[in-house]
Amino acid sequence: MAQRNKDQEPRSKAVTSYDVARRAGVSQATVSRAFSRNGYVSDAARQRILEAAKELRFRPNAIARGLITRRSRLVAVVMADVQYSFYLTLLHELHRSLHAEGYQALLKSMPSSADIDGVIPDVLSYQVDGVIVASARLSSRASLMCRDADIPIVLVNRYVAEDDSFSSVGSDNIDAGRKAAAFLLAAGHKHLAFIAGLADTSTSADRERGFFDEVSRQSGRQPARRTGDFTYEGGSAAARELMNLTPRPDAIFCASDIMAIGAMDVIRSELGLRVPEDVSVIGFNNALEASWTCFDLTTIAADIETMSWRAVDMLTYRMDSRAPRPQHEYIKGRLIVRGSARRPDAETIQRLGAVEE
Amino acid sequence: MAQRNKDQEPRSKAVTSYDVARRAGVSQATVSRAFSRNGYVSDAARQRILEAAKELRFRPNAIARGLITRRSRLVAVVMADVQYSFYLTLLHELHRSLHAEGYQALLKSMPSSADIDGVIPDVLSYQVDGVIVASARLSSRASLMCRDADIPIVLVNRYVAEDDSFSSVGSDNIDAGRKAAAFLLAAGHKHLAFIAGLADTSTSADRERGFFDEVSRQSGRQPARRTGDFTYEGGSAAARELMNLTPRPDAIFCASDIMAIGAMDVIRSELGLRVPEDVSVIGFNNALEASWTCFDLTTIAADIETMSWRAVDMLTYRMDSRAPRPQHEYIKGRLIVRGSARRPDAETIQRLGAVEE
DNA sequence: TTGAAAGCGGTACCAA
DNA sequence: TTGGTACCGCTTTCAA
Q: How far is CA A239 from the centre of its chain?
């Protein structure tokens, strides 16, 4: 016999619908009908087929099905390889929602958001039915490739301001910024500051906008501002700079919990100040770490579960009907009151729909 | 025309190898040869084919290829839906290693480790070439199903003591436990304690074994011990109990960073003790959070990158040759010296191969 | 080196 | 309600 390329050695033959058909005494087509929901099958036949299938441990081959239906029921989930727990939660929730709709998640991570072009070829050759982009900017090249292939895209926790052609779902960041401002102002703070994430992300920009709008509306002033790149180190560095200003800020709203934690660590350990007595700190996301005693971080909880199912819902909708108009949804977050920010009166807390923990 | 079931509306026709063949003036078979590495194609033909493919934006359909080759080049990555950043890093690294070998990662997460049976059907019907199980125990039912289907499994960061039939790769937990013990004893601690993870995980059991062995070898005593379930809350509760003992432990080794952090938070905030002056704390994993100023946690770094590529390597090896004998690899971790544990003399630090940060 | 043709394991149309 | 049959897009003999 010809020697085999070990790289190509085929797997042992699997049970197919033909085997089931033979055993159940029906045609292969009938077996197919019994497993795909469409087409009529008599109860008697279905019974025998199911039984035979169970005996043979038959499972329809999703790959073969995908080939003929042109629907792989695979959805790519694209994510830059950030390490923060928030994104793991997002990943799990997206998986849950996809699974509930009968889709599989093909994970694509990449060194940085800039490398999204590199993952698209894989995504295309595996004939995914849709793409969910989380924590990455979409390059125009990448989006063009998907459009060519007629693959819908939904952005989660992110949207592209310049290009309106993708659906997106994220937190209501403007509302969140306003809430943070209202909370801090009601607690009597005078010198507010903001630590932004990456400059060109809508998530950060909108949190900033809501925050600044509300502050200037209520107090007529502008908060101080630094950029923290959504990282712990960035948050630390930004806080270091902000706390050197005169007047020194007495409250900081951070565009993410991780930056807030970085800021707190600098404020307390490096500058020897107290939180919230000297400075109040508010974060965003309600990441796992925010509830740890060491931080006890007041924050605005992103509703990851809702975001995930809305994203999947929008995606399946577009996959099914190819609705041409992109939608945008903004899920309101809830202010979680913990100990890192001075508390305003109970009435304000209630008005903001905040919950104490 | 018959009305269409909107659920089944097919995607617009994609570019196939036939289109490329026509344009390049060759047969479809030749196009196939040009894209799969096997078979001869003249340079001239290859040139024209590649050109035509580029013009038409042709990408081979991996689904169709998988159908005929019986190799989907899909690998399922199975994970319980824990939220700790460590597992996100692991996920990214596994993806990286898989991608480097030309495999796609099919993400399967589940509510808890116990639900692994539920994900196997998906995994089977998508004809994955292999399964990597991270952060989950493998049920015997699940493993049987995979064996029936002849799908190799590799466990990462976990192994099954009772059943030797799976390959696994993890940290060298015994070595890690010994290092932690040696470090703490050399620093002059007398009353050591251990916070275990889940009772039936090898990861925790081995860390415990190494730790206990070394402690009793050097001091003739047994450390105190509590279980923390690998969670922040579990670590907190365990520390609360341990610190009530007489004599009160003056050093705690925790089977994970997250439990160590939970323990530290209780020790400092609740009991008003100082770390490391009153109690030294050592964790395991070198999770992202361990380096934060607030914790500055001395820990043993799991080498996630090496674990990932070894896991993928073992998996591809078994997929290619179906080597029957399962292998087990234990990757040594490195002790990262930070501020949460009293430091022994420089010589000990060097002898343990520890690095200061 | 190339092309024709037979599948891979299903789905879906059509006629019975 | 069922069976026959033509694909889905690719890989892989086999002959030329």
A: 27
Half-sphere exposure of B282 (CA within 13 A, CB side): 33
Contacts of B149 in chain A (CB under 8 A): 14
Report the CATH architecture of B15-69: Orthogonal Bundle (1.10)
The per-residue pLDDT for range B149-189, each reduced to its tens digit, is 889 999 999 766 556 778 999 999 999 999 999 999 999 99
Q: Which amino acid is at A357?
A: E
Calculate ∠ Cα A313-B7-A101, nearest 5°.
40
Are A38 and B5 a contacting pair at CB < 8 A? yes
What's the alpha-carbon Rg for chain A, to the nearest Å? 26
The DSSP bridge partners found for residue B104 are: B74
Is the CB of A35 less than 7 A from some atom of nucleic acid strand C? yes
Q: What is the CATH number of domain A74-171+304-331?
A: 3.40.50.2300
Residues in chain A closer than 8 A to B6 (CB atoms) = 320-321
Chain A residue nearest residue B293, CA to CA: A265
- The sign of the dihedral angle between the CA atoms of A207, A209, A210, A215 is positive
pTM above 0.70, yes or no: yes
Q: Which two tokens stand for residue B66?
A: 């998988």
| Other CB atoms within 10 Å distance of the CB of residue B272 | 8
CA–C1' gap, B310 and D11, in angstroms: 31
B107 touches chain A (CB under 8 A): yes
CATH topology of domain A173-303+335-356: Rossmann fold (3.40.50)
Could you read off the pLDDT of A319-355 as tens digits, one per residue?
887 667 888 999 999 999 999 999 999 999 999 999 9
Give CA B190 to chain center in angstroms: 34
Q: With a 7 Å cutoff on the CB, does A189 touch strand D?
A: no
Report CB contact under 8 Å: B88, A84: yes
Q: Are strands A334-337 and A298-301 parallel, antiparallel or unpaired?
A: antiparallel
Assess whether the previous peptide bond of A247 is cis (omega < 30° from 0).
Answer: yes
Fold matches, B15-69 and B74-171+304-331: no
Q: At what angle do helices B173-186 and B202-219 cross, to 10 degrees?
A: 40
Mean pLDDT taken over chain A: 92
Separation in Å, CA of A140 to nearest CA in chain B = 16
- The structural domains of chain A, with segments of one domain joined by +, span 15-69, 74-171+304-331, 173-303+335-356
pLDDT at residue A139 in the model: 85
A42 Cβ within 7 A of any nucleic strand D atom: yes
- How many residue pairs from chains A and B have C-beta atoms closer than 8 A? 176
Contact indicator for B335, B183 with CB cutoff of 8 Å: yes
Best CA proximity match to B234, nearest among B212, B211, B261: B261
Nearest by CB to B292, which of A60, A121, A232?
A: A232
DSSP B338: -
pLDDT score recorded for residue A12: 56
